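Forum > Structural Biology > Help requests

Title: Can anyone predict the 3D structure of CNH domain-containing protein?

Hi all, first post here. I have the sequence for CNH domain-containing protein but no way to get a structure on my laptop. I'd be grateful if someone could post the structure tokens.
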Amino acid sequence: MKGFSLQPLLPSLKAKITALCQQDDRLYVGLATGSLQTYSYDPQSDGGLPSVKLLSSAVLGRKAIDQVGVSNASKQLLVLSDGAVTAYPLENLASAKGKVITQARNAHTLVIATYDPSTTKGKRSQDGAASASKGNTPGGDGLVDMVIIGCRKKVVVFSGIKPGFRDAWEIALPHSPRQIVVPSTSTRSPSFPETVHLLYSPTSSAILSISPTAPFLSVSDTPNAPPPPSISAVAGSGDGTGGAGVHESGSGLTGMGVGALTGLGGYVGLGSKAAAPVGCSIIDGEVLLGRDDMGAFLSSDASYTRSHSLQWPTSPDAISFSNPYIYSILPPAAGSSSSAPATLPCLSIHLGPSLLSRGSLQVPSPSAGSLSYSNLITTSQSPSRTPAEAVQPAAKLLFSSTPTDKALLAAEGSSIWALSTSNLEDHVDDLVREGRVADAIGLVESVGEAGFSPTRRLPHLKTLQAVTNFAKGQYQNAIETFLIFNINPALVISLYPAATISGQLHVPKDRWLEAFGAVPGARLSPEVAKSGSAEEGLAKGLLKSVTAAAGLSKRTSMDSIRTTATSSAADKKADEGTDSAVPRAALEALMYYLSDRRQKVTGAINSLPEPGLPAESSLSPLSALPAEQLHQLPNLPYTELEPETLLRVAQVIYTGLLKVYLVARPILVGSLCRIENWCDVEEVEELLKAQKKFSDLIDLYQGKKMHGKALKMLHELALEEDDRLDRYPLTVRYLQKLGPSELDLILETSKWIFKEDPVMALQIFTADEPEVDALPRKDVVQFLESTHEPSCVSYLQHIIGALKETGSDFHDKLAELLLAEAKGSGSEDGSPTYQRLLSFLSSSEHYRSNRLLTRIPTESMPEARAILLGRMGKHEDALRLYIYRLTDHAAAERYCAKVFATEPNPKGIFLLLLRLYLRPSPSDPVLLTPALGLITSQGTRLDAKEVLEMLPPLVTMEDVRAFLVKTLREGRKRRNEARIVRGLVGARKEEVERALMDLQGNRVRITDQRICPQCHKRLGQSAIAVHAPRGEVTHLHCKDPFSGQLAKARG
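Reply #1:
Sure, ran it for you. Structure tokens for CNH domain-containing protein below:
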């Protein structure tokens, strides 16, 4: 059988073996002749089988030796033979004479329990266990032995063996104990055995309570409640058909009924020999007691520790436990007729934590008759072994086989067999491969995971168990486990269909466990028998074992089995359903998992030191990576991942979350696309298009800065719009948000909008958005000039008027465009285009006049030329255009008023205009009327003396009366204003000086104790002086010396 092997340790001893005891490096063999053979025992031999060598042989009596025990603390060997227990010194068994323990007459069984004296509770009595240290020196490790002997209707206990086995505790019993089971304790520091199980018969037992203080012993009957139901009738039988059941010579379930009746009959009197009770200690104080063909697990208070019992095909002859397996010797199964040959006994093996049957073993058949197995013992293990040694191959059990044929027994005698197990890691792999991950977890928990490799430890196995739970539909339970152990999200997503969620990450269901690191060929569930004959044998075995107890008929049981098989087949078909059929619970569990992982990965990203995550654009897309590479992402907390690995994990999480939202909660897709995310666009864009989530896809493109794709999709959507009002806004708003870095894309994309609607297109460059304001205006102007010139004019007017652009290039460009537009209109005076040009030339101060003046023909646009000449400082030329070319004297005065506002000189611009009126060039006429109007309206802005000198002689006083009155009044006004201002300034100065005096005034308080800092005498009623700025007070006659000191101190 895989994982276990039987090998002969001592074949054909030429004598019948009746007792075995292995302790440390010694093996003691008791014979039916009364002899005791001592062998050396080395479990670490090269061949894997322990090596033994005969050291001595001593005849201890004439009767068969029934039991042998070793007390390491007292260095004695206890031998049970013919109802008497004899103690022999270990140093010299051959020559030393044994001492019979007189208090243990008519003994049936004995057991030696080792404990640490420091673990006893309370104060011990003087004549009890406390005296053990005086009469019996503990072993080198400080441990003490307790000997418990079951005699006829009593039990005798020696706690701390004294010389001569004196001062025993004993208590009368209603029945004779046939076997004693002491619950196991820690091998590092075994505690005081407070509870011992006394087995009377296969159906009855009692609890012996031992106390280090009086009263030392007390007995209570084990409750006679029926043991819990067995699971082996279902689980174990299925294993038998699958190759992990009982021995190959017959079906375990088929032989269950007959074998059970055979063993039971022997006990109740139908046979010739009464059955002996069996039991063994498990771990953590738990014991296994045989109840006919069932094994019940009890605690120290006699309560059942498990909800199920162990089921055997028949009552076992002996049981033993070596972590993590339970070993049972089962007698030969009864044949179908008296002429059928007798079968051999077998050694049945069950996994302790789950009671899973792992099969059975038999020794080779003898040449004649059959065999009987007996003396089943567990080999002792060194307490100092490392965890790694605990899982290595080792011999776990020893037992003897004896021929039933007398002639063969006389010729060959008994043999000793050693049962060895392979590496327990291989056992774990076998269980996982069979689909029994829960059993593998139980094995590792029982042994302890310290000695196993990482792929056989509990975190990994519990992860595999979560995968099997997921396959069974226990989605939330599986997801919780994945979260606990930080399982790679790529593996979790791979459990879902490829068409909708997992994509390239998908793993076929039969390879789920392998993807999670299980051994090749691992199954999600145990294999179920498929043949009709196997199902029929299963049903028959069940009927024979449970019909009487459950009250079921044969037909009812068969119907139940067939119904179960039918439902299993239906479940299998459901598992093989369409790829896209995902239960709602599975989707909810995945959303829960990915939402949790999203929070964790966001926290890990935020905690990264600079420069943080690498840019997504610097790495290949997630969809370009092989699935195997993503499946191998580490199962670690996200804070321990490298930045690049963390980015890949984030991509897997966000991509999976968006996909599951598309399937389960489409309303959440938009919110995920609008925030910062690490979705792989190539994987999800087709899914979004298929569900017509165009706006969400555009948001995703925008967040990933894939603006080209987004604008292309917006263009395609715009072409499908019939209403032109709804065609452009989305694209325009998108372009407005891009900013200078995407200028080329903005310009290229806007062309199709300019072709269809220039007004709407212009909003791309004139919107009140920070991204639009940041666009390079020079490039925009060049693009608009080449694309749509009117839009360029509107754009320049926007940036100059609204945004207060002062760059000369932009003002020049706008003036040039307006000039070209005015030229193109064919009319100058009064046309809107010409008026816009004049308005701009008058309002703007940042264009270069000389450049524009060269573009205007000499004989056209005189008003524009006048504005440009004025900007160049050529006021006389500009005024000549207003006076003689345009004959617009009011315009000439407005021009002069504008210049005077910046250059208020009485001999300046207005005087120049008057000179042009009154003293023109020879070719121009004298304009006396406009001149008189000018001095009348603007007389205060003209120098009166210059005006009077310039007027012609024939001008009467009446003509200039208004000018003279206004001039005189203006002069008087100025003098009065100057006088008033001087008075106000003087008054203000006096007010400020008064306020300063008030602020500089200082009051000091003189008391009888105040001392002059100069002469160090009291000030008293003397005249004083106060020194600024700190207010020091001195005598008036001390003022000058103290002021000198202050000045010197201040430097």
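The radius of gyration is 56 Å. Residues 957-1000 form the longest helix (44 residues).
Shout if anything looks off.
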